[in-house]
Amino acid sequence: MRIVCGAPPRLRVDAVGAAPVRVADGSRVVAADPTVGRMPAGAFVPPPGFSRETTIVRDAAGRWSQDGVPLEHANLVRAFDAWVDRAEDGRLCLRNELGWAYVTIEGAPLFVRAVSIEGDHVRLRLSDGREEPLDPGTLRLGPDDALYCDARGGRLAARFDRHAQVQLGALLDEDDAGVHLRVDGLRVTPQAVADPLAPRR
């Protein structure tokens, strides 16, 4: 996938398995030629002479860059956030309907940006644009004192932003056994873990 940011072009990202894509300021992501380089979504081995490796990095704060150059185009950032996935070999990648390529992600693959609470039911608004119910059995506390949970059916870990974590405080309760969360009728005490990125399910 060849991505060009801005006009004139300032950055090119080459990844196998997708057509050349142009992202111009103020435009949406569009395929310049949807037949070029297209591969089946499940394809793992790239064609000869190509690689799925990239130098795209997202840091622990959620900022994308390539070769140290920040990727700040709003449409591109939004697309990359939505495309975060896990490849068949367990490594993190960017995946869309045209193909996929490896990326380096520091910290959690997803962020919980906000939560909505109805009674004791919680829905998560994730950094990839999706919304889904919280699986309370996967809540855990990382060494950074942030809450984490599993998302996408346990496929990826998600870290609660400070705002989302404060919102979840509305479900705090206390009894003789101590402070806990009451979610989906369950008494949940998130356990402190050394590696909060490891799936719990």
The fraction of residues in strands falls at 35-45%
| End-to-end Cα distance | 33 Å
Main β-sheet, in a few words? Answer: 7 strands, mixed
Helix content: under 10%
- Spatial strand order of the main sheet: 14-13-12-17-16-15-21
Mean pLDDT: 80
Count of individual helical segments: 2
Give the total of beta strands. Answer: 21
| Rg, Cα atoms, Å | 19 Å
Which spans of ≥5 residues are poorly predicted at pLDDT below 50?
A: 1-43
Query: What's the helix-strand series?
Result: EEEEEEEHEEEEEEEEEEHEEEE
Instruction: Indicate the multimeric state.
Output: single chain
Give the overall silhouette: elongated
Q: What structural category characterises the helix and strand content?
A: mainly beta
Report on this model:
This protein is mostly beta strands and 201 residues long. The protein is built from two helices and 21 strands. A seven-stranded mixed sheet has the order 14-13-12-17-16-15-21. The chain has a four-stranded mixed sheet with strand order 2-1-3-4, with no helix packed on it. It is elongated, with a radius of gyration of 19 Å. The two termini are 33 Å apart.
Task: List the defining traits of the structure above.
seven-stranded mixed beta sheet; disordered N terminus; 201 residues; 21 strands; four-stranded mixed beta sheet; mainly beta; single chain
Summarize the topology:
Layout lengths: L2 E3 L6 E2 L7 E3 L6 E2 L24 E3 L5 E3 L2 E2 L3 H10 E3 L5 E5 L2 E4 L1 E2 L4 E9 L2 E6 L4 E3 L6 E2 L5 E5 L4 E5 L1 H7 L3 E4 L2 E6 L2 E3 L2 E2 L9
Parallel strand pairs: 1-3, 5-11, 12-17, 15-21
Antiparallel strand pairs: 1-2, 3-4, 5-6, 6-7, 8-9, 9-10, 12-13, 13-14, 15-16, 16-17, 18-19, 19-20
